[in-house]
Write a structure and sequence with these properties.
Order of helices and strands of chain A: HEEHHHHHHHHHHHHH
Shape of chain B: globular
CATH superfamily of chain B: MetI-like
Shape of chain A: globular
Number of strands of chain B: 0
Radius of gyration of chain A: 23 Å
Number of domains of chain B: 1
Largest sheet of chain A: 2 strands, antiparallel
Largest sheet of chain B: none
Number of strands of chain A: 2
CATH topology of chain B: MetI-like fold
Radius of gyration of chain B: 23 Å
Structural class of chain A: mainly alpha
Largest interface: A-B, 78 and 78 residues
Distance between the termini of chain B: 41 Å
Oligomer: heterodimer
Chain lengths: 283, 265
């Protein structure tokens, strides 16, 4: 071992040991537990895949998995779709106010996550802010009811909650684009439309992929938002994991549900990165 | 081009309204005299802020949250300094994959981290208390600290360190007297970000706290009582102001690292 790598490892071992103890060990323990069973308070440590069979065959869990994925994929799509033009605007038309725009975007997100999600309930409710506003404008004659206590509400609230996590990475990747490439494409006869789709968009894909993963992976496991604005038809897998853990007293099943969602999320993320590898390789 | 830039600007402003909607309602309702959180507003009042002084469970939760936030931001920053120093100063194989592993909590769903930690603590028969939350929060804060400290160490000029060693300082002396002062603003920025993150974290605290509540856990329980909502809004407004002050400070210190290092070069 060279002295550099010795010194490096000596320093890195401190956070590494901490992460092994508090991340790797707990995750391993969770995987182990998912192969055991529990009868009320007694833990049976014989190896079985019963929990996984239950997780993948019981209609209620299938429903929760597919709903969680639908929600977080929809949220990822809309957040990136809305964030891209914003990031583009700041990067290409922000002038010397770029830092100010970025600051303006992050301010509302330092409000407590809990309260932000709760306030969506106030906005989207039957007598909520949005309905009173639309009634006042006489755009509707009766309050809208399809926007609270269902999937839509969860999607709207999460699309709001994760916005900066999409804007910032996309902005960074747009900033990295060499502006002389744009001049070159213009000189070679590309109009604004071609320039965007043939030069800017492909070069900013790394930021889009990053943004999509940063949003998709954590939102699958969101607990607060479905609980506050989702009603019963908007509940997600994290809510079930918590119930199995506490009220149902079935920690092994909760562990199996956690491991399964992690696997599904990892699988989709890997496929997504592979599909886009053509654009990612250059960087 | 100017046509499309006009549309982009209009879009940017509408999007900004969407982003600000919930955060703007918070102060509005906390200064509204009505107990019901809805429009039309009934009148200006600071009553809900005054009630904050009489909530003893709130004070207890605040104290717990402060203990947790101070402890975990310190621990997270120490671990972040170790990791960032190792990876920016030395080159060795296995560095990238180890770093990726330590950074994993950045993207892992929090519920998974919470469940996994709870399982381990239960299996080991340990009781849940404030310190279990501290450990969980440290795990979350460390990656953020690494990212901040990485940029602080990256701006560092290696010749300063070599000069100090040549002039007879020991390794430790060099670190303490040359490197540490140069990255100190980065450390402050990391402490402030860590503190803010911990103060607002709910899921891990919800899983790992025993009988003692933290501030977000307290807010969560308050959300079920319609009568308590205006007080909760007032609390949220206070927290928002505190977060903004801490983050502006953190940003100030982060920029100072960049600046002071630039002037050394």
């Amino acid at each position: 071992m060279t002295s550099d790598s010795k010194k490096g490892w000596r320093l890195l071992s401190v956070p590494l040991v901490f992460s092994i103890l508090l991340l790797a060990a707990p995750l391993t323990m969770m995987v182990l537990l998912s192969f055991w069973t529990q009868d009320y308070l007694v833990l049976d440590k014989t190896f079985t895949i019963k929990n996984y069979i239950e997780a993948f065959t019981q209609p209620v869990y299938q429903l929760l998995f597919s709903r969680s994925l639908t929600i977080s994929l929809t949220v990822t799509f809309f957040t990136v779709l809305l964030a891209y033009p914003m990031a583009y605007f700041i990067s290409f038309h922000g002038g010397d106010r770029k830092a100010l725009w970025l600051f303006l975007i992050t301010i509302p997100f330092w409000t407590s996550y809990l309260l932000r999600m709760f306030l969506w309930k106030v906005i989207l409710g039957y007598n909520g802010v949005l309905n009173s506003f639309l009634l006042w404008l006489e755009l509707i004659t009766e309050p809208l009811t399809f926007i609270l206590y269902n999937l839509n509400a969860v999607i709207i609230a999460l699309t709001h909650g994760w916005a900066p996590f999409a804007i910032l990475p996309i902005f960074v990747s747009l900033e990295k684009i060499d502006r002389s490439l744009l001049e070159a494409s213009r000189d070679l006869g590309d109009g604004p439309f071609h320039q965007f789709f043939r030069v800017i968009l492909p070069l900013s894909i790394p930021g889009v992929v990053g943004a999509a993963l940063i949003i998709f992976i954590p939102t699958v496991g969101d607990y607060i938002t479905p609980k506050l604005v989702g009603g019963t038809e908007g509940l997600m897998i994290a809510n079930m994991i918590q119930v199995q853990f506490s009220k149902a007293n079935n920690a092994p099943l909760a562990a199996a549900l956690s491991v399964s969602s992690l696997m599904i999320v990892a699988f989709i993320s890997i496929v997504f990165v592979l599909v886009n590898r053509r654009y990612l390789r250059k960087f | 081009m100017s046509q499309s830039s006009k549309y982009l600007k209009i879009f940017a402003f509408i999007y900004l309204i969407f982003l600000y909607a919930p955060a703007l309602l918070l102060p509005i309702f906390s200064f509204n005299s009505s107990q019901i959180i809805a429009f039309p507003l009934t009148g200006f009042s600071t009553h809900w802020f005054k009630t904050l002084f009489y909530q003893e469970t709130l004070h207890e939760a605040l104290k717990n949250s402060l203990i947790i936030a101070v402890a975990s931001s310190c621990l997270g920053t120490i671990l972040g300094v170790f990791a960032a120093r190792a990876t920016t100063r030395y080159d060795f194989s296995g560095k990238q994959i180890t770093l990726t592993f330590i950074l994993a909590p950045l993207v892992l769903p929090e519920i998974i981290v919470g469940v996994a930690l709870l399982i381990v603590l239960m299996q080991m028969g340990l009781s849940l208390n404030l310190w279990s939350v501290v450990l969980g929060h440290t795990l979350l804060i460390t990656p953020f600290s690494i990212l901040i400290m990485n940029s602080a160490f990256n701006n560092l000029d290696i010749s300063l360190e070599e000069a100090s060693l040549d002039l007879g300082e020991t390794q430790f002396g060099t670190f303490q007297r040359v490197i540490l002062p140069l990255v100190f603003p980065g450390i402050i920025a990391s402490l402030l970000i860590g503190f803010t993150l911990s103060l607002d974290e709910f899921i891990i605290a919800f899983f790992l706290t025993g009988t003692e509540t933290t501030l977000p856990v307290y807010i969560w329980s308050m959300l079920r009582f319609p009568k308590q909502l205006p007080t909760t809004m007032a609390l949220g407004t206070v927290l928002l102001v505190v977060s903004l002050v801490l983050l502006s400070l953190s940003e100030y210190f982060r920029r100072r690292t960049a600046k002071s290092n630039a002037s050394v070069e």
